[in-house]
Design brief:
about 400 residues; alpha/beta; Rossmann fold; Aspartate Aminotransferase, domain 1; 2 domains; 7-stranded parallel beta sheet; 3-stranded antiparallel beta sheet
């Protein structure tokens, strides 16, 4: 039986340029010999590009002594265009020199037949740093399948778009584990995908963790406090409803409205930055939020009507006039998206207890706990609750997580 192996390719980092290089850039520029003679399977989507825009599959097909045996696409598909939650079929394209399999068609991990003849699995997908973004669940399932098949895994690291500091929110409780919450981590976990992969294996959060042969190819030039705009990298929307860095920054806080009868802005030009419902008073809600003096963000009253678009073919409250808030991120370093999202829920529960309802199962899965919904329902029923005490409890949980995570960090 092979014991657990975690390898990290160590490179000297130069800060002579602001250009950050992804793990893919490092691999193809400096370490492509690691793949010579191998048949590889690639878990990726449209975000797996070098800083110059070249896609990983094109580069590996053209590389000498490397064979691409299969490609696997996560939620939203290998091109990143499918709606959230949409079941995706395998890609049939006879012009491609490799098969393309879906990991979002009811089979969420590569099968033994699909991995036949594969020497190495490469994972390269840009994440957004939110626990319920399903690419990280796919990562764990891929590593489980690799361990069972005895195939090494290589994770090509990428910057955390929303930064590598300030983990936030409650830890996901085991009874609420799901595809949108597979690990006991905060909602905002502040790790890169490579760091998280190491932690998943090191903490034995997946079956067969001791059998995982994992190598992480780190980025060059990235710092934990570096805003994405300073990386020199081009932002590629990782899914249809994360069209910008600003949306990515607020998404970990406003995605919770998916579990309510309030629109989270799907079906508009700025999903997750626009939140509202027909029963809301926009002016009252903005005033209540302004009174909390939340850092890094501002609010404006807004009326919008969700309509089908490229991001959502059937958005919540489609065709209904919604009143609510337009969110603007004013200071990314000061922004605490989970605090903002919880504040929005709390103030709305105070203002419109007769209107706000929950999709109980989904809401609890997103939070990774039922305690948030219970606290909000108590506030709505009795008008009592301690907003700050709940936040303080989460701060303790996330601090314990961050202390545990230190051994897996690759960047300062």
């Amino acid at each position: 039986m092979r014991s657990m192996t975690i390898g990290v390719l160590t490179l000297m980092t130069s800060f002579a340029t602001a250009q950050v290089e992804s793990g893919l850039d490092v691999l193809t520029t400096w370490e492509i010999s690691l793949l010579h003679g191998k048949t590889v399977a690639v878990v990726c989507n449209h975000t797996a590009r070098t800083v110059s825009g070249e896609h990983i599959l094109d580069l590996l097909v053209e590389a000498e002594s490397v064979t691409v045996g299969a490609a696997f696409g996560p939620e939203h598909g290998i091109r990143g265009t499918e709606n959230a939650g949409a079941r995706i079929s395998d890609v049939t394209d006879e012009s491609l020199p490799y098969p393309v399999y879906s990991l979002y068609d009811g089979t969420s991990a590569p099968t033994s037949a699909e991995l036949e003849g594969i020497d190495l699995i490469i994972y390269d997908i840009q994440d957004v740093g939110a626990r319920f973004y399903t690419y990280i669940s796919t990562l764990g399932l891929v590593m489980e399948a690799a361990a069972e098949a005895g195939i090494p895994v290589m994770v090509l690291d990428r910057p955390n778009v929303i930064g590598g500091l300030h983990p936030e929110g409650p830890l996901c409780e085991p009874e609420h584990f799901s595809f949108v919450g597979a690990y006991p981590i905060p909602v905002r976990y502040s790790l890169t995908i490579g760091e998280l992969a190491q932690m998943i294996v090191g903490e034995r959060w997946i079956d067969g963790a001791d059998e995982v042969d994992l190598t992480v190819i780190p980025c060059r030039g990235w710092r934990r406090d570096m805003p994405f705009e300073e990386t020199g990298m081009t932002f590629v929307a990782p899914s249809p409803n994360i069209p910008s860095v600003e949306v990515a920054r607020i998404y970990p806080g406003t995605c919770f409205f998916e579990g309510t009868n309030v629109s989270e802005g799907r079906g508009t030009d700025e999903p997750f930055l626009r939140v509202g419902a027909p029963f809301v008073s926009a002016e009252e809600w903005v005033a209540a939020l302004d009174a909390l003096s939340l850092e890094g963000v501002s609010f404006e009253s807004l009326t919008f009507t969700p309509e089908p678009n490229a991001g959502s073919s059937s958005p919540k409250l489609m065709g209904e006039e919604c009143h609510g808030v337009q969110i603007r991120v004013t200071d990314p370093a000061a922004l605490r998206p989970i605090r903002v999202g919880f504040a929005m829920l709390w103030t709305l529960a105070e203002l419109r207890p007769e209107g706000l309802t929950f999709r109980e199962g989904h809401f609890d899965r997103l939070w990774g706990t039922s305690t948030v919904r219970v606290a909000l329902e108590n506030l709505m029923a009795n008008g009592t609750g301690d907003f700050e005490a709940i936040l303080q409890r989460w701060e303790i949980e996330s601090a314990h997580f961050w202390e545990r995570a230190q051994r897996y960090l690759l960047y300062e």
